[in-house]
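Quick log. Single chain, no ligands specified.
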Amino acid sequence: MSVERLDRNTVIGLFAMAVGILVVANDFTALSVAIPAIERTFNADVTTAQWVINSYAMVFGVVIVTGGRLADMFGRRRVFLIGASIFGVFSVIGGLAPDVWSLLACRGIMGIGGAMMWPAVLGMTYQIVPNNREGLAGGLIIGVAGIGNAMGPLLGGVLTDTLGWQWIFFINAPVALIGITTVLLVVPPDKPADPGDRIDYGGTLLLTVGLFAWLLALDWGVDRGWTDPTVLSLFVLGAATLVSFALYENRVGDSALVPDSVMMNFVFAMATLTTLMIAAVFFGALLYLPQFMTKVLGLTAMASGAGMLPMMLTFALVSFVAGRVYELLGAKLIVSVGAAFLAGGMFLLSGIDQASTYYQLVPGMAVLGIGIGLFYSSVTTAGVTALDPSQASLAGAIIYMANVAGGAIGLGLNTAIVASANSLTDGISMAFVVNGSLATVGVIIAVMFIRDRRS
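-> predicted structure:
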């Protein structure tokens, strides 16, 4: 197959996209090692300080679909510039925050900026590459995200121990400025497909309330118990609101937040469902492998962060290769193989016990890394290209939201299993078996229903 070469402006534009993804992905993990220092600075308890991470992730997950729709409606370049500006400015304000509540407010607003940047970057990346290089776009996005996730705990630990945790925030500003400047210079303004589109305020409100209620219920359910009246009420509110959202969107028509052409696209729906089934694997590994390293193997927080490198670096490196393999072999094979590696990695790691050493974890983490790198870049490309190019940002946002929602549900399930087990290792082992089984369902869906545009 002949492959179209990328011109200089496209390469520079892809660099700008990579910078945008890097700053968002790094911010998800960099603060995980800084929580104790934030507790000491503000004399806050761990439950409050933990919301420095939760508030960002929750707002990001709730707003990202709206961010994707706005990017498709009003121009991805414009939405990226606004989102990156919000992210950079409130990073500086967050670093200067006088108390923990100001810091939490800044983190929530940073989540809005990130939720505008991510889908805009997705849309612009697929927009500027030739059609026969779409796999490159998916591989670049997920590969850089993997690097950002991997370097987050290490960079966060170094900055916290040397300059102070505030510099995790301050460093975002110059990086965001580089991305903004490069996009302004290289990426031409894009025009929405239908300038007459209106913002779907009703759909935005219903989706925001529904997702926020569910994510909050999943977060509180871990601590309060799943039968707590508040948690149950939030689940009911979320379910009722999301059903109302689906009915409302059906009546709104083409100006809906999620139009019928997206909702009714079978291949896109299957890509989203596969992502939902797989999400528990990645999120479960991110939470419980460091728990095992810290509480069973006795490693420090920094050493546990470094201990995740066999998975995270493999993930990043394979993502870059996956783009070219996707272009050669297509979506079905690569997505299915990636999902199979994810299932296999979970089943390998489910064999851990009290006597397991760190080196016994490495093969399972490496297999997981291969699966993550193959799966996420390819399923994103398959989902985005199943829809019209004018809906690329919305498509990418929905797939990412499915990952966040599936991860939150998976973590809740994992935590319930671990909490009810006789020991931490028994609980992690059982949880990983469940995650591997969910991934196996994802393999079946991918084999049966995933295909790419060439099919």
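The chain has a mean pLDDT of 82.
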